[in-house]
Amino acid sequence: MSHWVTIWRAAQLVGVPRGMLQQRVRAGEIELADGLVSTETLLRLYPQARLEESGLLERVVQIRDEAFGRRLRERVLPSQEVLARRLFRQSQELADVQRHLQRYHALVIALRDELRRLHAEAGGDEPRLLALQHQLNDGLARALATESVDVLDVMDDVLKVMSAQVTLKPSGHQFAVEGRDSLLQAGMRAGLQLNYGCGNGSCGMCKVRVTDGEVARILHTDYPLSEAEKAQGYVLACAHTAASAELTIETLEAAGPDDIPPQQLVASVRALRALAPDTLLLHLQTPRSHRLRFLAGQSITLGLPPRGEGDDAHALHPIASCPCDDRNLHFFIPRDDGDAVAARLFAGEIKAGDAVTLWGPSGRFVLAEDTRPLVFAACDTGFAPVKSLIEHALSLDSAPSISLFWLATRPDGHFMANQCRAWSEALDPFEYALSTHADAATGATQMAAAMRADLFDIDCAYYIAGPHAFVRTLAQELSAAGVPASQLHTEASA
Ligand code: FES
């Protein structure tokens, strides 16, 4: 018998991006009933789906390897308490099903005996009673016959214990809680823009209301919820995890840059190293109790400690990392004498441990809610906001495909080519093309020609970042080729 699962769960079971399944729904290859897809349909489309190949067993087997130790166990499995609660709940469901089955079985046997008796009373020659008896016996034999189990059904049961499925109201967004993640951490890992502040249970900004399912507290909190709030089911998302396999919570999510509050905080330099002769990687880390909330693709103003009176080095730089790791912020700083921050970083004046003040975030170069294939185009360090957007898109897992075109105006300009290779090797729906041209505008024209060859028969959303000449030229080429302005998102640097 077919089992019904959400698209989100289906993608987990067959190991493909959600966007790919959604595309098949739009193409009519997958039929939904109440938003659910049958495991029978999934197995027809993905006959290779096997528990052994899903990665589930692999993950469990790895846990036995002591070399991975406690850290791996914590990443993959929930705490013992949560695991026990999920297993207990699943056992309750199983016991319930068994009880019902036993009652149905007893009912069918009683009916069969009654039919026999009536048939005997009728002298053994009542054809309708005989036909009913045969129908019942055949049906019983079929129900008791051993059939091969639905492998996706089994995998779904395993997944329910290892990771919980959380549904957000009113947006309907869904995400998985794995390992010992809090609801907040898991939601951010899934690319969702949940409301939060401190991340450690003291500000109350991550308050959510549980409307279905159970949660378990995993962190001591200082923020006092009122008795009325507790009675209504409010909990702090940063301090709780999902204790049941399915959980529904009500919460607000940021819809865009206007919903992200302005912040000021002091981070410290974790690392500073050269990615290429003219490009530095600046890795900042915020204090545990003070994180930077931002959207992928946004920028922040960096302020270096003054060397003396009137010395004020600050500059706006795009964040190159994903908002899902809000403590570790990466920046690709190009050599630029007109940028006071870059000049001091290249002069070697800043070292690990130094304080850097952050103001922001700012910028509207963020992912739009869109189910089209995504095309990213970057020139030089325009790769920074593009990398942040790609990581965010990968977390969201909703784009049917992702393409990256990266132009370098210097021979060493592809300072993260390895990262592109790693994405393309690890992810089916990711492709990239690197190009080099000393002139950004000419490089953009050539890039548009390459896109035309690869993508113009596809309806895509385009994200372009880099120097003005590059962004302007590429956007003009794409507009001239018929891409609507609503599908063009641009970020030009000085
Ligand atoms: S984020 Fe501050 S209490 Fe949860």
Assembly context of the chains = single chain
Radius of gyration: 28 Å
| Assigned CATH architecture of the largest domain | 3-Layer(aba) Sandwich
Number of DSSP strands?
20
What hetero molecules are bound to the protein chains?
FE2/S2 (inorganic) cluster
Into which percent range does the helicity of residues fall? 25-40%
Strands side by side in the biggest sheet: 13-12-15-10-11-14
- How many distinct helices? 15
Question: Which structural traits does this protein have?
Answer:
494 residues; alpha/beta; Ubiquitin-like (UB roll); 6-stranded antiparallel beta sheet; 5-stranded mixed beta sheet; 20 strands; 37% helix; elongated; binds FE2/S2 (inorganic) cluster
Fold topology:
Elements: E1 4-6, H1 7-14, H2 18-26, E2 36-38, H3 39-45, H4 56-64, H5 69-76, H6 80-121, H7 127-144, H8 151-162, E3 164-169, E4 174-177, H9 183-189, E5 207-212, E6 215-217, H10 227-231, E7 234-236, E8 240-242, E9 246-250, E10 263-276, E11 279-285, E12 299-303, E13 314-318, E14 328-334, H11 340-346, E15 355-362, E16 374-379, H12 383-396, E17 402-408, H13 417-426, E18 430-436, H14 440-455, E19 461-467, H15 468-480, E20 488-493
Parallel strand pairs: 3-9, 16-17, 16-19, 17-18, 19-20
Antiparallel strand pairs: 1-2, 3-4, 5-7, 5-9, 6-8, 10-11, 10-15, 11-14, 12-13, 12-15
Helix pairs in contact: 1-2, 4-5, 6-7, 6-8, 14-15
Bound molecules: FE2/S2 (inorganic) cluster.
